[in-house]
Amino acid sequence: MIHGILVDEAGGAPRIRELEVSITQRCNLACAQCGFMVPNQPPPAYGDVSQEAAAGLKQLGRLGIRIGTLVVLGGEPTLDGNRLVRTLRALRGVGNFDRLEVVSNGLHPQGLTEEALRYIDRFVISVYFDDPALSELWRRWLTSVAPHVELQLRVHADGWDRWTGDEKVDEGQAQQLYDACWYRKHCITVERGRLFACSRIPKLSRDAEGLPLTDDATLAEVTNYLNGDRFLPSCQTCVPMMGMGMVAPGVQPDDRIARLTGRAIAVLSARVAAAESRAGGDP
């Protein structure tokens, strides 16, 4: 029986409950204290992210590891619609997961095509816009063209953990942060051919703290990495786990959310009208 982050809950294959795949470091928002807005953030792949992400997933599958929810995100994953489709198709070709989820801010619908929706089980919108009409248009469009896709609107009512800062704790405190870490349970990440215990580590270019997913990687190595007893070096500077208070989510340096909301409403309004016309006007 495997316990910890990599689990064997039903006596079957070892399982990672949730695994993230980032397909871009770019975003159309510039949220203050966003965990992805780090200076000089590296791209999530050396070359074609769709092939590299699928290769990492395939290596986990080779070891008999199954994923509960495979999460595709960015940055903003819909900024490049072709890249998103290629990645979703490649990941589906591996298939060692229960559900495929895409997380978006919902403000670039032109980058989410009906083809992409064929590969998605759940579409999650982190809601930073104020107009409920946009949420309703998303619901109507997905209901019309992809009724199999679960729509989840995620409102961050309690705020975000503070993310940036130069604070550093001693080894004893780092061990406490590691033992209590929320991110290790929800933000295990594959980037640049490596498995990372949380998404913060690759965003900070600390690739040496990841586990290479090569043909020589073993289940024991993955288990020891994810379920290890000792903190990682990045834990000593993990501001999000230091309990420094919450910050308001989605705060921008300008009025871009209002501008993007208007464009998104225009795009989805046209799509909804076309879809409902094809369906004979039924909502």
What does the overall shape look like? globular
Counting structural domains, the number is: 1
Specify the number of helices. Answer: 9
Distance between the termini: 48 Å
Using the CA coordinates, give the radius of gyration: 19 Å
What share of residues is helical?
25-40%
Q: What value does the average pLDDT take?
A: 93
Question: How would you describe this protein?
Answer:
The protein is 33% helix and 17% strand. The protein has 283 residues and is an alpha/beta fold. The protein has one domain (6-273): TIM Barrel (Alpha-Beta Barrel). The strands form 2 sheets. Strands 1, 2, 3, 4, 5, 6, 8, 9 and 10 form a 9-stranded mixed sheet that branches. A two-stranded antiparallel ribbon has the order 7-11. Helix 3 (114-117) links the parallel strand 4 (97-104) and strand 5 (122-126).
The gist of it:
With 283 residues, the protein is of the alpha/beta class. The protein is built from nine helices and eleven strands.
